[in-house]
Structure prediction request, 406 residues.
Amino acid sequence: MNDNKSTNIIWHDGKVTRDRRSQLMKQKGATLWFTGLSASGKSTIAVEVEEALLEREKVAYRLDGDNIRHGLNRNLGFSADDRHENIRRIGEVSKLFADAGVISLCSFISPYQADRDEVRKIHQEHQIPFIEIFVDCSLDVLEERDPKGLYKKARAGEIKGFTGIDAPYEAPISMELHLRTDQLSLKEECQVVIDYLLENNHL
Amino acid sequence: MNDNKSTNIIWHDGKVTRDRRSQLMKQKGATLWFTGLSASGKSTIAVEVEEALLEREKVAYRLDGDNIRHGLNRNLGFSADDRHENIRRIGEVSKLFADAGVISLCSFISPYQADRDEVRKIHQEHQIPFIEIFVDCSLDVLEERDPKGLYKKARAGEIKGFTGIDAPYEAPISMELHLRTDQLSLKEECQVVIDYLLENNHL
Prediction:
């Protein structure tokens, strides 16, 4: 005979498991959402924050174009609908990671406030911290950096719909953190993020 | 000045991070994929295995209809295409969890071998263990259990395309584990899974 019934009732409550997992991991889940123009330094700061968290024995996981565009979102293109769906799916997955107790680091241009607000809402509905971080750098500096030559191509019209050139970027208004990557060193940026997490009881 | 360049090069290699995260968490990621008919006990055994892993101080996370159908896959219906996409996305997300060092427990009917094979392939491509577990129970017993009255409705033609009644279930052929939930107790089933994980060096 199957003796599962009571166990089933007790353990299907996700919240109980979330708290116990949190105790076991000695950390709480949260999503850090890095938004900003191409080459502004989103992935770079996410990598640095992940390293700083690892040093503090905290488990973090990065979601970025590398592991999303070739996997979960491989069937999405760059139409308006697909861009929206891209961010929505990432937001849902990040919420799951944070629910699992992981500090999830998301680096995506995510140019539209409405999309970022939707992701925030997904987190709020599940009482999971969502920390929007504006990775800000002047266009002048970005066009000078231009590590992949994308701005040059966009200016030449070889790439269409490039955010910041011929597609809009809606800068966050009420973000939790504003990092000026053209004014701070990477170490300084990282410290700002870690300090924020400490001060707000996320670590 | 931004001093990120070398850090960037070193840390963009996901594999290095995976190993370090694994050391920190004292565990390795893997996906346990529970497949079987409705009411066969997929979620029940996943909950029990999660509990057993928590007791061993291992971090597990369950993906199931509750946290997927209302979130990531809320925009999918039950057409053939949508069912395929449903499983594909879950497979991709489970792979990300396992990559993050978490033991991911997926409970989905997932009736088609081709879909399960695709999920296996996604894992293999990233050298992440994929353990297919056939949660098997005779239809007679399932129709007797019928906790939500779904089999009755399907027999009456009130639900169309119900797996096992008027839609096919392709039983796994070369799965890692075969659990007969109409013959074993929940504790026994759980022990089989834990023993498998121990014997195959996943714990």
Chain B has one domain: 34-199. Residues 1-12 of chain B have pLDDT under 50 and may be disordered.
